[in-house]
Amino acid sequence: MNLRALVLCSDEKILKVLRRVLSDLEIDAEHCTDADTAVRKLTRQRFEAVIVDCDDQESAANVLKSVRRAPCNQHAVAVALLDGVQVVKSVFAQGAHFALYKPITTERAKNSFRAARALMKCERRRNSRVPIELPVTLVFGGTEGSVKTTTLDLSEGGMATRFARQSRKKDRFRVSFALPGNHRPIDCEGEMAWEDDAARAGIRFVDMQDEDRSHVKAWLLRHLPEMENDDPPVACKLTDLSPGGCYLEIATPFPVRTRVTLATRCGDVRVEIEGMVRVAHPEAGMGVEFVQNTGPQQQKVEKFIESLVNSKTAAPAVDVKPEGMDDGPALAAATAVAGNDPLLELFHRQRKMSAEAFLGELRRQRGANAAAARA
Q: In this structure, is residue 298 part of a structural domain?
């Protein structure tokens, strides 16, 4: 089943390019010429992407905001088409994930929509649910003990369950369940994503181990035959590296708070780690913070950094694969790392900086690090 994109644009030249590129990428496009029609479609149909020409900024803002309000399109990937004079931060604040600058050429559009398609596939799979009843144990902290319940459905990012009554529980807790045919229990942290008046609740998985996530993903793929395989990883050039993160040169960066897998090679061994996109600059690059909440994750990060440091090339290649957009509370940097990591501190200061100021500070850090290395 092809991916679907809603396109709000009245420029025939742009539409001609978009139709050709989207067709080549097996993305079906549904065209709208006015914002009211686009908003109505968003409330009634599901799309994996929404593409909005921001020539009329007020109408574009209304459509981008409607994407997040529409229950069936909350996870759609939003692409904003911008003039060079428009401020990219404002459209990101309104809900855009990617920015594509005019004039829109076929090559520029292909690069942008390849990255967008990888995330569209990932989000569709992550939010596609398999109806299934599984026993689940939720273990709460303090004196609240544990609760046994049953799932209504399961997805890569969480599950829906039924409670005897509304829990009103907002803190994190442990979630334990076993997949059919797999006696090894899956245990991870969870948090309430939603509750309704029928005592049903959505649980979002948090900090699930790589092995457990792979088991869930593989099981879902077997039970969702219409789901296509992920796109190949995107090759990026490493320009900056620290114990807590890295900056990668890429024309179409993934959105801020996209969970990614970074991979490089150490001899014949492929080394992979998890990361979170913290900074994204269209047509420049993105900053990724390494996830190292556990001992095994920290060890993988150390091996990853060692592989890059020992690389014989000036700008080592790093493959990046999106794993989905994080829709939970913003993750804070690991205190032990951030306090002594100028690159990571720069990532967390970027909201107060323009892209030009950030990239200038990044170059300054890079020069200082090179001078220190020569000394």
A: yes
Task: Based on the fold, state whether residues 11 and 78 are members of the same structural domain.
Answer: yes
Q: What is the pLDDT of residue 285?
A: 95
* Residue that is last in its domain, among 223, 242, 275: 223
- CATH label of the domain that carries residue 307: 2.40.30
245-291 pLDDT per residue, tens: 999 999 999 999 999 999 998 777 889 999 999 999 998 999 999 99
- Which of residues 343 and 211 earns the better pLDDT score? 343
**SS3 call for 29:** strand
Q: Check whether residue 258 and residue 347 sit in a common domain.
A: yes
**Among candidates 250, 224, 372, which has minimal Cα distance to 322?**
250
- Helix%, strand%, coil% for the chain, nearest 5: 35, 30, 35
Reduced to 3 states (helix: H, G, I; strand: E, B; else coil), residue 194 is strand
